[in-house]
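Appendix B. Chain record.
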Amino acid sequence: MSFEVDEIDIVFESAEISVKTHLVMKKIILLLAIVFAGAQMSAQLIINEVLYDPSDSGLLGDANGDGVYNQEMDSFIEFVNIGNTNFDASGYEIWDDITSGTLRYTIPEGTFVPPFGALVVFGSGPLVGTFGGAVLLSADDTPSNLNFNNSGEVIGIKNPQGDWELTFDSDALSNNPNESYTRTPDITGDEAFVQHGSLFVDVLFSPGTMADGTPFNTAFVVESIAVTSELGITEIAANQGTLQMFASILPLFATDQSVTWSIVNVTGAATIDQNGLMTAVADGDVTVVATANDASGISGSMNIFISGQTSVLVTSIVVEGEGGATTIAEQGGGLQMSATVLPLDAQDTSVTWSIVNGTGTGTIDANGFLEALTDGVVTVVATANDGSGVSGSLEITISNQGGNVGSAFNPFIVSIYPNPAGEFINITSTDRILSYEIIGIDGKVLQRSGAVMQLKIDVSKFNTGVYFLKTQSERGEKVTRFIKQ
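Structure tokens predicted for this chain:
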């Protein structure tokens, strides 16, 4: 790979992109960071920041935070895992040049990088500071440490199979920058790198964090869940018998080891509590499922056969509004809902209330009281709690709620505070929020809810990092960024 002074030709598969630029520009430069198709596409590293020429002015170049400036010790290379699974970086090699270079460092066994997390390799330690909670390594046992030169080389990264997987052409940037080159924006900046000080004056590097100091993700995710039962039992034969279920999570270093238990009734029926204690309800097969509570979406399951049950299950539910009403016409009005459960001798006749917002919106509490929010049709649902999976529903038409009409003088504004957030975020809006979603930096929806005007959201279960709140009103959609500390 080479960079021409007048023109750069970059070829990806069959598509050729020719970009003409002059390398006399100090602040912005294009680089090539190649990730071959053979790499792990679900958990993939990119080079995000490189410091090969620390400043020698006092301690301005003290990137490792040990209180001493050293050209070799303070050099670093920052990687980011852009995949959705933990990345095993064990055995990856850092070379100071891809043509006539020297192997400078081999990443040790057992080095993993979380999704959208950072791995920083310094020339040497000690490493003083938090560095955003990133995975940190130092090349202390390597001759001359990383030994990155200011010019004349293309830094290369080999995978454990010995193939070049990433390259960084410092020769194209040989202007003695005295600061790092960082991808802009972080993670998604394709091949565009700039000198760090051009983004934030007097901030010459940001190892382990984004350029603005925002931490990368630090949470390792679940990769597999094995569901087992006490003593390996696969059948419940006693009437209303119980069976303790267990979930074994890998990797052991996954940050959130908790799961949510659920039952899929096949031909039988059962219930399960959040401690994994299963209770038999009706004869037949059921599937016990444990789902990770982190952003991985991973689940495991086990089939259990149930026999000897005498319980009577719910077979039907009829939902009605008080007095047979199917409309709410009063502004801010409500309607008490009721559920008739059959057969009458069903062992558990309790239900869980929920609402499916259609053209209109509303809320419903645990006692079945429906509150109107916006005009249109909503569907009220009552679901049996006995494990039968039976539910009933009724459509309710809402009118006269006085919807928001926007104008150029009354824009749709959403505010989040505090930001950065701790345990909770508070949301205020000029419009009634019909729905909201909290989205991770990987684009995965982590939480969603229905209509509110002002709300307080518990974000304590979220890991430190960047998130997006997507809100929907009658006038459109708004996406607001927030940071979880």
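Further analysis of this model is presented in Appendix C.
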